[in-house]
């Protein structure tokens, strides 16, 4: 499916416009990892392209943000809209595996992400940087994206860099680990027969 056409099953489009950003996201959970991303922040584009590739999601992002101020609103708001798109694409979350985790190495770095598609948002972020910027992007903004994405998608999300030296490798392995964990968590489990993977009989708040 072209990234600019009507939604397919397990796909969604969400838009959000404020005085700070104007964002449209299209997300297909059963894609092939294609990405068409333009946020105005080159390094963020690079991370989101990697996220799509390793989650096997098809992802379209357009953001017009107030980058003349800084990258904060763009980064956080893109996370918000991507999270909303994921939540919408999952519907009632029936029949999905629900839990996913992944370890991703990148040269000297090893990161781990664990995800519960529970409808109960929470982020544990144990990732540290030794530089203030990577490219033109402030390193403190990476947590803002992860927090916004997890909160709006309804994910319990634990992300850790177990060890690493190169800051680029640290954050890239974190995005890729999240991608792989999400891929596993949203994969349908046929034995559930469409029912939610919960003893309560439902997922969500």
UniProtKB/TrEMBL annotation:
Keywords: Amino-acid biosynthesis, Cytoplasm, Histidine biosynthesis, Lyase. GO terms for biological process: L-histidine biosynthetic process. Pathway: Amino-acid biosynthesis; L-histidine biosynthesis; L-histidine from 5-phospho-alpha-D-ribose 1-diphosphate: step 6/9. One of its GO terms (cellular component) is cytoplasm. Its EC number is 4.2.1.19. NCBIfam families: PRK00951.1-5, PRK00951.2-1, PRK00951.2-4. The keyword Cytoplasm applies. It is found in: Cytoplasm. This is Imidazoleglycerol-phosphate dehydratase. Belongs to the imidazoleglycerol-phosphate dehydratase family. GO terms for molecular function: imidazoleglycerol-phosphate dehydratase activity. It is an enzyme of class 4 (lyase). The keyword Transferase does not apply. It catalyses: D-erythro-1-(imidazol-4-yl)glycerol 3-phosphate = 3-(imidazol-4-yl)-2-oxopropyl phosphate + H2O.
